[in-house]
Amino acid sequence: MRILNNLLIVSVVGTILFSGCVRKASFTGEYPIKPVPFTSVKLTDNFWAPRIKKNADVTIPIAFHYCETTGRIKNFEIAGGLDTGRFQTLFPFDDSDVFKIIEGASYSLQTFPDPKLDAYLDAIIYKIGLAQEDDGYLYTNRTIAEMHGGGGLHEWANKNRWENDSISSHELYNLGHLYEAAAAYYQATGKRSLLEIALKSADLVNKDFGWGRTKVYPGHQVIEMGLIKLYRVTGEKKYLDLARFFLDVRGPEGQQYNQADLRPVDQTKAVGHSVRATYMYSGMADVAAIEDDSSYLNAITRIWEDIIYGKIYLTGGIGATGGNEGFAGPFVLPNMSAYCETCASIGDIFFNHRLFLLHGQAKYIDILEKTLYNSMLSGVSLSADRFFYPNPLESNGQHERSAWFGCACCPSNIVRFVPAIPGYVYAVTDKELYINLFISNEADITLGKNKFKISQKTNFPWDGKVEISVKPEKSIKFDMMIRIPGWALNEAIPGGLYKFSDLNNDSVKLLINGEPYEIIMANGYAVISRKWKPGDKVEFEIPMPVRKVIADERITDDINKMAVQRGPLIYCAEWPDNNSGSVLNMLIKKDAAFTTEFIPSLLEGAEVIKTEGYQTKRTLDGKIEMLNEEPVTMIPYALWNNRGAGQMMVWLPTSTRSTRPLPAATLAFRSKVRSSKMTKSLNAVNDQIEPLSSSDHSVLYYDWWPDKNKGEWVEYDFEKPVTISKTKVYWFDDGPDGSCRIPDEWEILYLNGNIWEPVKAYGRYKVTKDEWNSLSFKPVTASAIKIKVKLNTDFSAGIYEWVVE
Ligand SMILES: [Zn+2]
Fold first, then answer.
1. Which of 190, 611, 670, 744 fits as disulfide partner to 5, beta carbons 3.0 to 4.6 Å?
2. Backbone angles phi, psi at 451, to 5 degrees
């Protein structure tokens, strides 16, 4: 029998939980604004509600399925003595996926009661309990290794507990997710089983860590947020103090990669691994709110500005580079290689939501909404069973969502985030009701001592009309704060990294009970201060014309380009809708006019944007010509890659200087290309797009990664024998962070009859980066030519372009 203790479900949102349990009387600090829990907000719309349903019907079951088939669950069974064997999975942090999926399933059970899932959770939690050691330690890799005399201990873990956590063991990372899951499961079901495991663990961590005890900082942050949830659930200040310890013990002598090169209070820049970063900033926001700590507040305010002024993509994605899975320098925002990890989008939503709860300013929700509707949403397919890890803004067809990953952080984060989305719609103080997101719903609002119902009707994000009905039983006075999105006020993003290229003069019109109401703005909100009567109705329309966006010119990959936005949605051109699949060579006129059309049958219903553009082509003498005008169709970025892999582009060239023209019919282009490692990117070598440097991530390259310390080759097979005497190659080299360098050596061979012979080179084979490496040789008549490359002992290599004349 399942007993729901509804009294405990006082307030749950996303990963922020405000428990109804008694706090210690002396300790009442909290966020000044409280979210209305998702359990009080029932979505009735056609956009998010079906996605949350699919998360319950599809994503959660397959996530548990993969936890079973990959051995993640079996790890707990072995550690708990229910089974025998070695550690089953790849990474010591694989325990965390199970915890995250339990967290998501707990949220989901609130909306979709499911006795089978409930019983399944009971069974998994029983196994987790068995896997926990007697003193509270929980880390299946070590427990299983110790059963085998230490054999199978992961190389990331030290032979002593905790000692390697600031480097790689992820012991505290796993526990952070355990605590979040335990708080969610307890609040959702009233059952203490997982909470008891978490508290036993947290008490061990509290015994082992602290000033005068072990002073190791978490290598991958998240335990800070987790401990604060345990503090909220139990009211025990020791968990808050421990969260604070894990922040204060960090830096200044650690790595920038995990934000340990400075003390958190001294940090001003977003650096390093972006998921670790946003989890830490969120934990800092919690401490700043609860302890009213201005040093933490100042640090996260400056870090937020650093992100918004130069390190965020138009889609809301953060973390530009894959080498560190994290932030690059300001304005380094390449599109095709954009990392924008799905987890980082979710982490940034946590961070911005907390800043809103601290300050009540709409700009934080503007970023949250941008991330939610674009880079987060692209992380999961329409079918809800395939996932992106990176979310690039441009593709040549090399990107495709996967069913699962060896490192499964992103799918398990989707599992727990999606069912919590209704918790981001509203927030309250004693006197104010904030309406942050526009989604049709029915909600129960508690405002001070008053409880009442409210409903929203809208077809957002396709249409900006919103109708809000307030249904108090008797009249009550409060301020309704309706967020007017920055994009409706000619602000593409707070801080101006992106701008609309033209002004829109349509203003938001607001009616109360059918009568026009003059809007008074405060902190980005239209404030309606009145005594609300049963049946009061607010109607408004946020204009949603198609907007052209341009980027700060310091973002080199976006120069002479524009993007297209409508409402919160960023658009892209994708292969199935355009030019027989050829998108990357397109060009749009700056003064292009747009039309829109809602197509119910497309991508489960989507508003498309249409305009006219041109394909561009390179001529044999190197010029770029525009071909005939053609229709261009754009879809919401978040919906791309639901019809197979192919070309996609968010930033559309507006000048021949920024296009990738179709190649001219050069000798190399007319050849058949083969290589020692055939990949989709092989066509980069003769696409005639020259990079600006050997690490220009905006240009396609071909590489042999992860191979190293061996010979490789690329070959052009000519249509018929030709006489050649010159060649040049431009090497790819993503050092010092990446895994490719210029090769040790290269050599040109030609096919003479059926024998490969080296050419007689005039001069030496130059091997330098950031420029063409040219070679002249004694003319030969060949039916094919081959470039042989000797890879470095420690690095792979790659080619941007290889020309033969
Ligand atoms: Zn991830």
1. 190
2. -120, 135
